[in-house]
Amino acid sequence: MSVSYRKDMFWLAGLFIVLMLTPTILPNNYYLTIMILGCLHAMIAVGLCLLVGHAGQISLGHAGFYGLAAYTSAYLSTTWGLPVELSMLAGVVLTVVVSILVGMPSLKLKGHYLAMATLGFGIILSILFTETVDITGGPSGFVGIPRLSLAGFELHRDVDIFRVVAILLCLLVWLCFNVLHSRMGRALRALHTSDQAAQAMGIDVARHKLFVFVLSAGFAGLAGVLYAHYLTFIAPASFGFMFSVELMVMVVLGGMVSVPGAIIGAFFITILPELLRAFEDIEIILFGLILVVCMIFLPDGLAGGSARLWAWVKTKLALGCSRG
Amino acid sequence: MGNPIFSCEHIGVRFGGVQALSEVSFAAQQGAITSIIGPNGAGKTTFLNVISGMVTQDQGTLFFNNQDISQTKAHERAALGMLRTFQNLEIFSNMTVLENVAVGCHGRFTLPLWHNVLRTPSSRRLENLVHDQALAALDFVGMSTAASSLAKDLAFGQQRLLELARALAAKPRLLLLDEPAAGLNIAETKFLAELIMRIRDSYDLSVILVEHDMDLVMGISDAIMVLSFGQTISHGTPVQVQKDPRVIAAYLGTDD
């Protein structure tokens, strides 16, 4: 058991080093923006990987949590003039509280019904963002949000924001690995396959489901407040139903149960549309096509696919060595 | 025999228009193997579900170790030391055999949530302990060589043993077995009978057994209760029950 934990820690160290080196090889701020968004999406995706992949609870409402945190922090810091750090904290805390209130009744539902309930919640929030024009600015968005600052220092350069976001992502990934390698992770996997057997083994199923739901909502909340104070402008379109689906696609593409997979999936889904910009009209068609091809040829996701590729390369190498 | 480890009085369960159980009273003695038999649809599994807390009774009270557990939830009963297996296997198919058994240890230990999230030394210590306990339970049923295989890759008989090992890892005081011999061949059933006796003796626990295989039941039970259409029609030692005309009538029908 501890062997695979060490493996995951190596992976995390690798992720950290790659992320820290990224700004030096990127030619301009445009790429950095995409990498920051990729990190934010990865934060939500790793939480969803625990919730959906391991515990088997489907949520289509995480864009709502993301938006709720973003709007809360934007409102508190801009309209009320609270310090950015404090309003960010308030944004995450409110998201956690709301996720507890939403989770307690809806996690009693199973499978598709839970997906429907969280979908409904996400849509309600998205309507609220659009219609409460006095608070959110409505469809035209919320402008003039202060930039991210830490301990009184405003982070002017995108590179600094990227570093903060990347470090936070690594921290969340570490927490995910810890949970997965503990009795808690085992309990989540158990209740995924059999609610009844999990109960019979002394697992408080309701409590564990709520924990992982709130944890993933909290991750989405953290990503949301960072998003608001990075872009300094937010609009309801970013937090709609389609974004919830996109988040699910990231996790599924990553192979459902793999945390590294979810991160790769998040960056893939964030970067791909930018690469396809050149094709203009057929961009969305190509995007869909690539996803379909991925799902057909990589049924266990990018993580499983790359593991198989690696095994194939290793056997080829071994063959080559024995021949030579 | 001493005090009953488990007893219940006047249990009634109704599913819509069907009275699944009515006025069932029952006791399992400490250290004994107590069997529940009856024709198909007699309410045996429902009764076991009531005992383990999967189904809530409409009437009646249950006592475990002289403690009223009528309102205790299923997972809390497991933590008290009442562990069950399932008639239709409920193994965690995508987990390894060892992990399956480790889940069995869940109710035995408690650890505040943040220890798991931060992987504190106590969390790691507990993981090592769970690992050892799981291996020991797996070894007891003779399956330690399969520890790292996926549970779904096991043969059916092995999956039954795995369920048993998973329950044993919880160090139960009362083991509830729901048709453990269903689907097993004669040799496997014989091994199971010996294993149940061996478990009772070395784990110092009591067993409640729901089973169709009469050879198994008559061979290892200390006491038997017979259910038919949700009611107790007989109880006593295997010999008494076998001679009871009401039992014979329930199984074979009466001629009139």
Index terms:
heterodimer; A: 324 residues; two-stranded antiparallel sheet; 14 helices; 77% helix; 1% strand; B: alpha/beta; Rossmann fold; 2 domains; 4-stranded antiparallel β-sheet; 10 helices; 10 strands; 40% helix; 24% strand; globular
**What is the overall pLDDT average of chain A?**
92
Which residues of chain A form runs of ≥5 with pLDDT under 50?
Answer: none
Anisotropy-based shape of chain A: globular
The CATH topology assignment of chain A is ABC transporter involved in vitamin B12 uptake, BtuC
CATH architecture of chain A: Orthogonal Bundle
Instruction: Enter the CATH topology name of the largest domain in chain B.
Output: Rossmann fold
- Overall structural domain count of chain B: 2
CATH superfamily of the largest domain in chain B: P-loop containing nucleotide triphosphate hydrolases
Radius of gyration of chain A: 20 Å
Structural overview:
Chain A is mainly alpha-helical and 324 residues long. Chain A has a single domain, classed as ABC transporter involved in vitamin B12 uptake, BtuC, CATH 1.10.3470. In chain A, 77% of the residues lie in helices and 1% in strands. In chain A, strand 1 and strand 2 form a beta hairpin. In chain A, helix 3 packs parallel to helix 5. Chain B is an alpha/beta fold. Chain B has 2 domains: 166 residues, 3-Layer(aba) Sandwich (Rossmann fold), CATH 3.40.50.300; 78 residues, no CATH class. In chain B, the strands form 2 sheets. Chain B has a 6-stranded mixed beta sheet, with helices on both faces. The mean pLDDT of chain B is 93. At the A-B interface, helix 7, helix 8 and helix 9 of A face helix 2, helix 3, helix 4 and helix 5 of B.
